[in-house]
Write a structure and sequence with these properties.
single chain, about 60% helix
């Protein structure tokens, strides 16, 4: 993602995909329930693709 891409407004579908990635992270034991809850709240509040990317940056790409 280029710096400019991170400023692009996120869609509802992109927020939902981020939540699915977080769910997979939780199911694999990569996130605690508290981390998952916090990140899901942040995903639904995210305005940009950069904000969404930050929520999954420490998870392996194989989750999506």
């Amino acid at each position: 993602m280029s710096p400019r891409d991170g400023e692009v407004r996120a869609s509802d579908a992109e927020r939902e995909e981020t939540v699915r990635q977080l769910q997979r992270g939780l199911s694999q034991g990569r996130l605690t329930v508290d981390e998952f809850d916090e990140r899901v709240r942040a995903a639904y509040a995210a305005r940009t693709l950069g904000e969404l990317a930050e929520l999954t940056r420490d998870l392996p790409r194989s989750l999506w």
